[in-house]
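Hi R.,

Here's the chain you asked about this morning:
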Amino acid sequence: MTNPYLQRFRALSLLAIGLTMMVVFIPRNATAATTVTSTDFQAQSFSKVVDWYDYVRSYAQQNGFNTTAIQNEHAYIYANYINVGGFQLFYSGLVNATHNGQFVTIPIQTFFEHFKTPGGKDAITASSFISLVAFNESTTGDLFPNSPDHTDTVYASFSLGVNLTALPNHPAYVATSSIIPLTSTDQNHWTWGLNYTNLNAIWWKINPDPNPLLNTWAANVPRGLARYSQLTFNYALAIDPTAKTATLTTSYTMGQVTDLYLLTTHPAIHLNSTGTYNLNGSLNSTQTVNQFLQARQMKLSIVLSQKTILATPVTDKTTSGTSVDNDNSTDVTHSAVTTSAPDGESISKADFGVKPTYNLFNTTSGQSGQYNVNTRTVSRPAWGGNPVFWLQNTFMGFLPLFVAHVDPGLIQAAHTGMANFAVSDYLYIISYPTWGGYKIVHDPQYTAFFQPSSNLGLLTAIFIAIAVAAGIGGVFAFLFRKRRTNMTMQGTTQIPPSPSPAPSPGPPGPAQ
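And here is the predicted structure, written out as tokens:
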């Protein structure tokens, strides 16, 4: 007999997917959204919460697109900008978003860097957090031990804004977010972050196979619903003009799984710290959620992307010289991936050997320990091309336009046929083999090699729209999917920012 609760949840999942196809984000809160102006980018720094949809509506209206579907949509972005000594960093994190009075908090993070290399090359890099992934290793023929692959049972973990109220004894959606203010001890040292708490995330079963015919996800049947106590992103930027480096240390904190709803069991069950329950609230067994995850030997990973844009070809290689631009999986746990120009000049480096371990905190016993991390680059078609990540894939879709407004000179060169943009990008997965559903803290490093100079106000007011479009631009891609251009740009349009209306009434805004 078909589980009626599962039937209801399947219907909810289809509804959620339908909504995301229409509006891409299902959004909420922020008590006050501000506006970014051109003069902001002349300053050494700024930190604001902006309504991304204001810029989408402005662009759409000025280019003849119908904005009816997004008139009442809001997506609040925590935007930080640092402009010191010729190095510029722009960070955008989705606080939350609203749609027809409903809200969801999705942990989307992207940071961009713009600088000139010591050799005088204009460079832009972009790095994005894509998703949490839970996985169970194959017992036979495991392709990559301690790392998710298509021989394993893999669950992409993120929220699509499913309305949980149709579930009996449903969990309250109580996710909140709070910004960690941008601060500096001096002009070369900056910290900030974004903290999400009580995140409800659907577990979607996926098959990240390099073969596009086998690269699938179970769109109609979500396997589970997990609540994470927190997901925190802390950033620390250290600029060293003498060494000509700007190093960003990113600290990821994945909190404990406090609740797990298994939706394909018969009957569906709810696990928490006290036991296993049927959805009517009756006790099923004394097995706790952490005991369940340990018994199933579930492991955790995060999927991230790295992209570099230069006016000349670029390559990504490990410390030993192995290219990671060929979509082959390469172990970089104790190594780094350096992006270089054809003449061998280093542009940037993602260093995983600096911190090859992570901290695991067992909040039940109070014990903690360090364990070895596993980091490898992965096939972009297998992971980035998986249909489950279509929303995250819009992150980087409009980097050419981003380049256009960061450095008009590059665009002019492309327009006259003197230069084409070259892009290098790779996906990588950081895995935490010992998990048990407990709290994990880890912090890899990213270094840009730049030529110090006087501060240059290269960014225009439209930068906020284009940067967020590239980083979180599902709506942007939705509006303009029929008008994509090749990497060689044919000119750009300057769009003045629109006044920012007051956000619609809703729950309390992000703590600042």
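One quick note: The chain has nine helices and 27 strands.

Cheers,
M.
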